[in-house]
Write a structure and sequence with these properties.
CATH class of the largest domain: Alpha Beta
Strand order of the largest sheet: 3-2-1-4-5-6-7-8
Protein name: 3-hydroxybutyryl-CoA dehydrogenase
Helix content: 40-55%
Distance between the termini: 33 Å
Keywords: NAD, Oxidoreductase
Structural class: alpha/beta
InterPro entries: 3-OHacyl-CoA_DH, 3-OHacyl-CoA_DH_NAD-bd, 3HC_DH_C, 6-PGluconate_DH-like_C_sf, 6PGD_dom2, NAD(P)-bd_dom_sf
Pfam families: 3HCDH (PF00725), 3HCDH_N (PF02737)
Number of helices: 12
GO molecular function: 3-hydroxybutyryl-CoA dehydrogenase activity; NAD+ binding
């Protein structure tokens, strides 16, 4: 039984994991490097809980205040000394994660499992940055975390079967199901999804079609709830680019070469929903909130 969960990184994914765990009765320690980011995370978790309560009239929802009381917000990694299980959600930059894991290794309890929430980075490599590679695994949550019933769990070269069972138990507590896959860059979901998104960007770049019509084809012809370009906006075009760069480097395969249009959009600050514009515009997103989201998602890069 996981009683206290550590979550490192208060961006979109970190907030979602913290909220989902607190809703299931776990204590949560949510870490980021700036108080203003944690304040924004607190506000957005409360708003998400209130919205969820309004939408789900089928059952009595626990008041948002009571759920949030189970979340401790901290800027000091030492607050993680008491956690039973840890989910890391910092930037998809290898150098950032590599500098973080030795610190976590020295602070957390020896039996604490480290779950790397990554789109493409090798879990075996992440385990090598610690003295507990048998207790390191990948845990690829999907956005929005509280609403997605499945989680891709990645077993690295040294990950023990006991660690996998602990991860499954944790996800069961969250009301989610684990699908266990082996460790290769991109795993299953992003090895396929990033190619689809990237090719959709090439289609727009080559003026074969508009972003709107590309997504209409996927929704209308294939029954997808969301087209590849709207999905990219939801994930964040910067995250898509980071993931493709990792896949390109890992496989040395030109099929993962990012579309020049994608890189241009990221350079222009068009990240998708969190910036208010990507392949589509999101006019209801206030720029101040967008800036906080971007800062939260990339904050670890400032260490």
């Amino acid at each position: 039984m996981i009683n206290t969960l550590g979550v490192v990184g208060a961006g979109v994914m970190g907030r979602g994991v913290a909220q989902a765990a607190a809703q299931k009765g776990m204590r949560v320690v949510l870490i980021d490097i700036a108080e203003e980011i944690l304040t924004a995370a607190d506000s957005e978790i409360r708003q998400a809980l209130r919205f969820a309560g309004m939408m789900d009239k089928s059952r009595e929802s626990e008041p948002a205040e009571e759920v949030c009381q189970r979340i401790e917000f901290a800027t000091d990694l030492k607050a993680l000394a008491k956690v039973d299980f840890l989910v890391e959600n910092v930037s998809e930059k290898v150098a950032v994660k590599q500098s973080l894991y030795p610190q976590l290794d020295s602070i957390c309890k020896s039996d604490c499992v480290f779950a790397v929430n990554t789109s493409a980075i090798s879990i075996t490599r992440a385990g090598s940055w610690t003295k507990r590679p048998d207790k390191v695994l990948g845990m690829h949550f999907m956005n929005p975390v509280p609403m997605k019933p499945l989680v891709e769990v990645i077993q690295a070269h040294h990950t023990s079967d006991a660690t996998i069972e602990t991860a499954k138990q944790f996800l069961t507590q969250l009301g989610k199901e684990a699908i266990v896959v082996n460790d290769m860059p991109g795993f299953v979901s992003n090895r396929i999804l990033m190619l689809t998104v990237n090719e959709a960007v090439f289609v727009v770049q080559d003026q074969v079609s508009t972003a709107r019509d590309v997504d209409r084809i996927f929704k209308g012809c294939f029954g997808h709830k969301m087209g590849p370009l709207a999905t990219a906006d939801l994930i964040g075009l910067d995250t898509i680019l980071f993931s493709l760069d990792v896949l390109y480097e890992s496989y040395n395969d030109p099929k993962f070469r990012p579309a020049p249009l994608l890189r241009k959009m990221v350079d222009a600050g068009l990240y998708g929903r969190k910036s208010g514009e990507g392949f589509f515009k999101y006019p209801n997103l206030h720029q101040a909130a967008a800036n906080k989201a971007i800062q939260a998602d990339n904050v670890a890069g400032k260490k």
